[in-house]
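Handover notes (outgoing to incoming on-call)

Open items:
1. Tol-Pal system protein TolR: sequence verified, structure written out, both below. Nothing else pending on this one.
2. Nothing else urgent.
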Amino acid sequence: MNPTIVRKRRKLKADINVVPYIDVMLVLLIIFMVTAPLLSLSVDVDLPQSKARAVDSKKDPVIVTVDADGRYFLTLQDGKAQAIDATELSARLGAFVAQNKDVPVFVAAPGVTEYQKVMDTMVLVQAAGVPRVSLMSQPGGDAR
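Tol-Pal system protein TolR structure tokens:
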């Protein structure tokens, strides 16, 4: 036997073992892939009543009303609501606002109207050249 025993020293390994991290990442990926479709469910919303004060304006506003069936009504400054289709609404409203730059334009709808129809109406009004569109509401309580 050899009186001097030579032992080999093993070098320490300085690398990070990433296998557990990859496993955790794959589990999280599967969880997110399963739960993501569940997050896009729609919910019916009843919009709250407004307690906003009335708007003080020097000019009578132009009111575009959309009903629950998607029909449009235009009320110009003479105060009479006229049934109108979308193309004629865009043309008349664009011409009226071009002549009266500072006239306020409101979009109104009954509470039973789908929100998408209100949004489509706002897009139609803005496409007619109206720079600023406001929503109109009924007073729901004591307006202060």
